[in-house]
């Protein structure tokens, strides 16, 4: 704790999600907030926001009672894990929020436990924009005592959280959530394309359909970007989400679950990546679908940006 009795929390990974969460915790004022990222520009931005920056992972880990990790890949997690094992004090609680496969999470928790550090598996449901608004849901799993110590931190950057029992249950819940995100995002894109072909105003579609039984969070969150044709900067990049889809596919195969809707949706994301839409937001599946042949059209050579989408910009 700092001189005023506030717990010290360290954020490792200050990308879209990590910086948003850290910003919300800073705004609460209940924690002394430290941060580390391998990217110097991100460290400077965090310092400008009022956080305490560390140029080295080891110094952050040694200073903090709670460490939250928000990382883009298994490789990044394993690199940070080595630093945590070496530098963390026994009794430290690590709140691991990345979307990774179950085995990686369980192995990481076991390595930290041998060093006297408790890891919570705590993946998040929500986009970067939702993270900035504090509109995240956390799936928290791990030892009850560690959950109790981290609860006020999790509450500082989420709208809700669910305590799910043993380590790993959080990741399993996130896989189910992202399965639906993948399908609903493509379903929203397909429905908006259908509405466009019917000659409907897409902004009216978002308002009318979104307020009825056909609405979904993905229609509400990603629909406006689909209508505007605006896919950068990304709240969740296509290549990052593709990593999540492969994890889900592998878990479903291992569980023996038949996933025809998910498989069809995953093919759309793969098509987008093949077309070079790597850094675009996942809302860009609208453009991927509009570039696919439809029954009344000849096979187009590229995507069409319709007048409805262009005209929708005045609503931005």
Automatic annotation (TrEMBL):
Q: Which UniProt keywords apply?
A: NAD, Oxidoreductase
Q: Name one Pfam family in it.
A: NAD_binding_2
Give every 3-hydroxyisobutyrate dehydrogenase-like NAD-binding domain span. 168-286
Write out the ranges of the annotated region (Disordered).
291-316
Q: Keyword Flavoprotein, does the record have it?
A: no
Return the Basic and acidic residues bias intervals: 304-316
Query: Which InterPro entries does this UniProt record tie to the protein?
Result: 3-OH-isobutyrate_DH-rel_CS, 6-PGluconate_DH-like_C_sf, 6PGD_dom2, 6PGDH_NADP-bd, HIBADH-like_NADP-bd, HIBADH-related, NAD(P)-bd_dom_sf
Q: Residue limits of the 6-phosphogluconate dehydrogenase NADP-binding domain?
A: 9-161
Q: Which superkingdom, per the lineage?
A: Bacteria
**Which family would the database say this protein is a member of?**
Belongs to the HIBADH-related family.
Q: What name does UniProt use for this protein?
A: NAD(P)-dependent oxidoreductase
